[in-house]
Amino acid sequence: MKFFPRLTAIAAATAAVLGSAGAAFAALGHPVPWQMDLQDAATPVMADISSFHTFLLWVIAAISVFVLALLVIVIVRFNARSNPSPSRTTHNTPIEIIWTIVPVVILAVIAVPSFRLLFLELDVPKPDLTIKATGKQWFWSYSYPDNGNFEFDSLMVAESDLKPGQPRLLTADNEMVVPVNKVVHVLVTGADVIHSFTVPSFGIRIDAIPGRVNETWFKATVEGMFYGQCSELCGKDHSFMPIAVRVVKESDFSAWVEGAKKKYAGVESVPPNTLAAATSLSATTGPAVTTALPRQ
């Protein structure tokens, strides 16, 4: 008899935990504690990914309920007490046809939107802006070939240097800046080992492979800060390799480009591994490392 009060207590505790999560079921641009869903979409591609995810969730739930119902029926109707003389039937042609055709139909229903989404992600439309992202141990370098071909490095800000509102392990000293409602073509490569360029709210994730240039794209429809991380194990400081993207109005982007041309003129990106150990130390104990070196 003590089972039901305990079950009630567990249910109440679970409800309290979920209730304390409040609006943390999803967030735009960054993860939140107790998050139980995908980050809110900031691009059309991510909106389609979220819709497809919800569709699959309903399909999986329906299949799970159906299988559970079959198990309950078998347990109740065909146990030794209820059915002391079991049937010796071994084949049933109609049922065998059904359990062959129905899964095929379900997979076909899933495949159509799946392939449509895949083509949407891979078919890069005419870009308004091209950015090259290079993964290094353990930071990112960004170059803007369409806007003067300047380049800069982006390193994680140490926890001791964070300002109010800046997320831990996600804030970078130099952010990638892009204009809102513009198609951004991203060229991704690696300088040392395989990395992965991932921004969840944009619905993009693509490997950065040394000696190879991959491409992806996004069109942010919302202004603000959006965060991601390297999603491929790339060494001991893999978790200290954030991606920070600031989406701004086109006029603000133009002003930023003019300032960036002056700020990063005459500097060159840090060679891979030059600051790897120093970056790791800075991320945990001290201020961020200088991210650009003067040309020799």
Word description of this protein:
- This protein has 296 residues and is an alpha+beta fold.
- The protein has 2 domains: 34-84 and 91-123, Orthogonal Bundle (Helix Hairpins); 129-294, Immunoglobulin-like (Sandwich).
- Helices cover 36% and strands 22% of the residues.
- It is built from 5 helices and 12 strands.
- It has helices spanning 3-21, 44-77, 93-122, 250-263, 276-285, and strands spanning 129-136, 139-144, 150-154, 176-179, 184-190, 195-199, 204-208, 214-218, 224-229, 242-248, 267-269, 292-294.
- The strands form 4 sheets. The protein has a 5-stranded mixed β-sheet, with no helix packed on it. Strands 4-10-9 form a 3-stranded mixed β-sheet. A two-stranded antiparallel ribbon has the order 6-7.
- Strand 6 (195-199) and strand 7 form a beta hairpin.
- Helix 2 (44-77) packs antiparallel against helix 3.
- The radius of gyration is 26 Å and the shape is elongated.
- The protein starts with a helix and ends with a strand.
Describe the structure using short key phrases.
alpha+beta; 2 domains; single chain; 3-stranded mixed sheet; elongated; Helix Hairpins; 36% helix; 296 residues; Immunoglobulin-like
CATH class category label of the largest domain: Mainly Beta
- As for the CATH topology of the largest domain, it is Immunoglobulin-like
**Helix amount, in percent?**
25-40%
For the report, how would you describe the main beta sheet? 5 strands, mixed
How many helices? The count is 5
Number of domains: 2
Structural class based on helices, strands and sheet pairing: alpha+beta
Count of β-strands = 12
Strand content: 15-25%
Order of helices and strands: HHHEEEEEEEEEEHEHE
What is the name of the CATH architecture of the largest domain? Sandwich
The radius of gyration computed from the alpha-carbon positions, rounded to a whole number of angstroms, is 26 Å
Terminal-residue CA separation: 80 Å
CATH superfamily of the largest domain: Cupredoxins -  blue copper proteins
User: Low-confidence spans: pLDDT under 50, at least 5 residues?
Assistant: 15-25, 276-296
The average pLDDT is 83
Q: Characterize the overall form.
A: elongated
Strand sequence of the main sheet, in spatial order?
3-2-1-5-8
